[in-house]
Amino acid sequence: MLRQPRIAIIGGGIGGLAAALALERRGAETLVYEQSPTLSEIGAGLNLTPNAVKALRALGLENEVGAVASTSDFLNIRDWKSGRYISRTQRGDFSRKYGAPNWTVHRADLLEVLAGALQTTKVHYGVRCTAIEAGDRVAAARFADGSTVEADVVIGADGIHSAVRTSLFGADTPRFTGCICWRGMAPMEAVPDEIDATNGALWMGPHGHVVHYPVRRGELLNIVAHFDSDAWTEESWTRECDVAEVMATYARWHPALTRLFPLSERWYKWALYDRDPPPRWSRGRATLLGDSAHAMLPYLGTGAGMALEDACVLAAAIAQQRDDLGAALLTYERLRIPRARAAVLGARQRARENHLASPWARLKRNLKFALRERFGGADNTAFQVGWLYDYDVGRELQ
What we know:
The chain is of the alpha/beta class and about 400 residues long. It has helices spanning about 15-25, 50-60, 60-65, 95-100, 105-115, 165-170, 245-250, 255-260, 290-295, 305-320, 325-355, 360-375, 385-390, 395, and strands at about 5-10, 30-35, 45-50, 70, 75-80, 85-90, 105, 120-125, 130-135, 140-145, 150, 155, 175-185, 200-205, 210-215, 220-230, 240, 265-275, 285-290. The protein folds into 2 domains: about 5-175 and about 275-395, FAD/NAD(P)-binding domain (3-Layer(bba) Sandwich); about 175-275, D-Amino Acid Oxidase, Chain A, domain 2 (2-Layer Sandwich). About 35% of the residues lie in helices and about 25% in strands. Helix 10 runs antiparallel to helix 11.
């Protein structure tokens, strides 16, 4: 009888914890190594599209995450200056159309649910991976404190600055998009009445856009603002900044929107970089998952969902091909790379449309959104992403 494999997962974020859960439920011995000292609230809000919710269903966590998530009936696209509604994508019927709802959630809440579901996995915090050695029969991870762990498979779920990816394939070449992002979090009771805070919103203007949506059962409003600028080039989620930067950048935007900004106690900023989808994720007994494999721009709101899907497919491949784990990793690649590549390129295309400078180009785009809402048929989403939402990883695994 084959022994159950020993799997080391580098990174204790959403993808890493989801992979640990999926693997331990299939009998694997799983070890997680996370460089942060504890679970934290860094990362703020996340969008969980229907495909992501179906992945949580496959993990057995749909009810648990649903209890801490927020739902909305619409995604409202609004004009930056007048506040006029350009389009209202109906999310309330997503369960009927795509088999699951659209949720928004605080990243810390999702991490807490994932971590709390683990039974046998050992999670080590405050441990930073520096390199991977991937052989044909075993892989090893080396850490900054000088320690090493060997495993049958090492999974790199260590994000956009992945040490595992660098070890396997060399340094990547991200391109600065010329866009800076800010994020904050406002208490819902302080949000002005003229803001429809119960639904998601996308305010679109020249050279920028602002997104806000409820999280934590509607107790908080997550705010993310994007603007074209080369004044900041640090790709970090944790650099705090003054709200005055945000107020100055959006000073000419609708006053109801700008009144949101001072409601957040803290603001963070980062520069947005784009990466080409890699042709390979695996080498020997090591592979990549989540942002380390397919970091994408945030414009499809599906980064977390793709990591959850990765976790389910990888765990199934390893369980089904325990006698040849190298082949299992190649199966995982074959099943996941085409879809991940489509999402990366789709998000890149969305970025071009979001920040149109020409008034005529914006008018044409807005008219297209309005027509899709009214006459788009089965896929009347503003961004034509029914193909993304319709996917069910549970069906993939049957």
